[in-house]
Design a protein that fits this description.
The chain has 30 helices and 15 strands. The chain has 705 residues and is α/β, with parallel strands linked by helices. Among the domains are: 88 residues, Orthogonal Bundle (Arc Repressor Mutant, subunit A); 122 residues, 2-Layer Sandwich (Nucleotidyltransferase, domain 5); 136 residues, Tex RuvX-like domain-like (DNA polymerase, domain 1, Orthogonal Bundle), CATH 1.10.150.310; 68 residues, Nucleic acid-binding proteins (OB fold (Dihydrolipoamide Acetyltransferase, E2P)). A hairpin with a 6-residue loop joins strand 12 and strand 13. The radius of gyration is 33 Å and the shape is globular.
Length: 705
């Protein structure tokens, strides 16, 4: 990659040029973001995975820009208009809008008023006016009256069209106007459709809205643009046409000199036409697009953070689980799973109205808990969730059986997916949905990777933001989470394995096929026998795969096989075997890290090895905890201002956090009511009810703790 791009990435991310250069070099060698951030800290200066991901993003952006430049230069050269100065400006450009401005005068275009005027032979007249060589425009225009031009006014009008287009294609003019528009206000007003369509009521706050574009919060802008797309709002920037016209005209005169009054009148008319017809719509759209891109990035960042927290939610681990997908009329779907998540049985009970088969349901649950040695119960948080939880707690469960409420978001998407059909080809969607609820309690990460993150209910305007940028962020987030936890090579599904560094869907399938054929892996070295898993893939994935009970305990750790010899040397120096060293903190404390620095393995790698030897294969996630809602709150009608209630954070946005307080509607803690706290997804909180809007089913909350 060219040095100017490396320098710009370093500037944008506030890192060193060499860090960017080394990361890009590793990307070109086929290294992944998790591998680089975990195992190549010497080359990156210890950049975390998010920083490495940002470098990857911008290296891709500039690679595409370089391809665009090649195409632009080729087009202009074919026209015979590529000067050394223009070539230099294009080659050194770092901003997409500036690059397109430079290309605009040479870009093939559809037929315009200016091209029509040129076809009439009026470009020489426009040139004379542009270069201030026609101080008496009417007199000069008479020379162009003929077969194609009827009169002087038509000649002047055509010349003005050509001049107007030149202003609209001037890179300096466009950038000057961008600077002005970036300081203006976004204004939105209701359309006629908004007054007749009840769907528009949710945008009521924007029916007569105005705010500086540099200050408008991302969620406000995205809502406004969505409403405009739906036909409920008109959106504009309040740039003053007269001031903008004065700026264009002043800059034109500064480059030359002020024209005489007759020519000045023609030039000024061309300026006003150019602004109104060409520049204002174009620059307004560009600046709104810029603002949206910024809003997209902020919204996507929130989504990525929420997804990280969701994927790294505390697991209960390998416990025999009863999963309940609650419901009223259609009953509660139950699936019992063994400690590995395999389906043992499924049934439906009807403990709620209209059937109200409480006794029969209690006996069914009791029998299954005993027969399948159930250790935990997962209840979906959808319709009838509170009622089902109350019912289950009255069953008379053994004291050791814990009850948890689990988010159902995305369970229905999973149950109808190709992934679910492959896993449970003989079961219907209700059974698959219940299984998903149970498995996401056992191991949220392993189960949620099967579901499109956009279906998990944790985003903010996720359908309105740049979908390519969103997909990049979500893919990176999932991969980073999976690799930060590590994956059990002998139990992981192909969907989980596919997110491991260096392994895609095809290799994941090969690994599972080999595992099924050979009865499981006993060492990481066996990965070399997996079809099509070559040395590069092994390098990238081995450190993130775990083998419980392996003969070499390092195979169940984050120590990479390329560093096993370092551990062996440490052990030999202490007079023990590698196996005796692993987990022995007393021995590990005796090791001087500096003694084992060698080649490309510096102190960061050695310190990581020592940390991992102390607690090999440690899961970074916390343990799952039980939680109960307030016993006397079941409906929105039960709420009163001033009530203090327990709740669970279900979604975090730029404007606040949504909290489940045990009824069908989530309440909102606005940012102004968070007392400066930074909440996390699924965090247990204590809140106070500020207000209840029964008409719109809206609940306002204040954070207590």
């Amino acid at each position: 990659m060219k040095q100017l791009y490396i320098n710009e990435i370093a500037r944008k991310l506030s890192v060193k040029d060499w860090q960017v250069e080394n990361c890009i070099g590793l990307f070109e060698e086929g290294a992944t973001i998790p591998f680089i951030s975990r195992y190549r800290k010497e080359k990156t200066g210890g950049l975390d995975d998010m920083a490495v991901a940002e470098i990857k993003h911008w290296s891709d952006v500039f690679s595409e820009m370089e391809k665009r430049k090649v195409g632009i230069l080729s087009t202009i050269e074919e026209q015979g208009k590529l000067t050394p100065d223009l070539k230099s400006k294009i080659e050194n450009c770092l901003v997409s809008s500036e690059l397109e401005d430079l290309y605009l005068p040479y870009r093939p275009k559809r037929r315009t008023r200016a091209t029509v005027a040129k076809e009439k032979g009026l470009e020489p007249l426009a040139d004379k006016m542009w270069n201030l060589q026609a101080q008496d425009p009417e007199s000069e225009a008479r020379k162009f009256v003929g077969d194609k031009v009827a009169d002087v006014q038509e000649a002047l009008s055509g010349a003005r069209d050509i001049i107007a287009e030149r202003f609209s294609e001037s890179a300096t003019t466009r950038e000057a106007l961008r600077q002005i528009f970036r300081t203006r206000r976004v204004e939105s007003k209701a359309t006629k459709a908004a007054s007749t369509n009840p769907e528009a009521s949710k945008y009521r706050a924007y029916f007569n809205f105005s705010m500086p574009i540099q200050r408008i919060p991302s969620h406000n802008l995205l809502a406004i643009l969505r409403a405009e797309k739906e036909g409920f709002l008109t959106v504009s920037l309040d740039a003053d046409p007269e001031k903008c016209g004065n700026k264009i005209y002043y800059d034109f005169c500064q480059e030359r000199k002020y024209p005489g009054p007759k020519l000045a009148e023609q030039i000024r008319e061309a300026v006003d036409d150019s602004f109104k017809r060409l520049l204002e719509p174009s620059i307004s759209n560009e600046v709104l697009k810029e603002a949206k891109e910024k809003a997209d990035i902020e919204s996507i960042a929130v989504f990525g953070e929420n997804l990280t927290q969701l994927l790294l939610s505390p697991p209960v681990g390998q416990k025999r689980t009863m999963a309940i997908d609650p419901g009223f009329r259609n009953g509660c779907k139950i699936a019992c799973l063994d400690e590995h998540g395999n389906l043992l049985c499924h049934t439906i009970i009807f403990p709620h109205p209209p059937q109200s088969e409480k006794i029969k349901s209690i006996m069914a649950v009791s029998d299954m808990v005993e027969k399948y040695r159930i250790e935990v119960i997962a209840i979906g948080n959808g319709t009838a969730s509170r009622e089902t939880e109350d019912f289950v707690r009255k069953v008379g469960l053994p004291e050791e059986v814990k009850v948890y409420t689990v988010s159902e978001d995305g369970a229905s998407i999973y149950s109808a997916s190709e992934v679910a059909r492959k896993e449970f080809p003989d079961e219907d969607v209700t059974v698959r949905g219940a299984v998903s609820i149970g498995r996401r309690l056992m191991d949220p990460l392993a189960e949620l990777v099967k579901i499109d993150p956009k279906s998990l209910g944790i985003g903010q305007y996720q359908h309105d933001v740049d979908q390519n940028l969103l997909r990049e962020k979500l893919d990176n987030t999932v991969a980073i989470c999976v690799n930060s936890v590590g994956v059990n090579l002998n139990t992981a599904s192909p969907y989980l394995l596919s997110y491991v560094s260096g392994i895609g869907p095809a290799l994941a399938g090969n690994i599972v096929a080999y595992r099924n054929q050979e009865g499981g892996f006993t060492s990481r070295e066996q990965l070399h026998k997996v079809p099509k898993l070559g040395p590069k893939a092994f390098e990238q994935c081995a450190g993130f795969l775990r083998i419980h009970g392996a003969a070499n305990p390092l195979d169940n750790s984050a120590v990479h096989p390329e560093c096993y010899h370092i551990v062996a040397k440490m052990a030999a120096d202490l007079g023990v075997s590698s196996k005796e060293l692993v987990g022995n903190e007393a021995l590990i404390k005796k090791i001087d890290p500096s003694k084992y620095v060698e080649g490309e393995f510096g102190l960061p790698t050695i310190n990581d090895i020592l940390k991992e030897l102390s607690k090999p294969g440690l899961d970074p996630r916390q343990e799952a905890q039980e939680f109960s809602f307030a016993d006397d709150i079941h409906e929105i009608d039960d709420l009163k201002p001033g009530m203090e209630l327990p709740g669970i954070v279900t979604n975090i946005t730029a404007f606040g956090a949504f909290v489940d307080i045990g009824i069908h509607e989530n309440g909102l803690i606005h940012v102004s009511q968070m007392r400066g706290a930074k909440l996390k997804l699924h965090q247990k909180v204590q809140v106070s009810v500020l207000s209840v809007d029964l008409d719109r089913n809206r609940i306002s909350l204040r954070l207590l703790k």
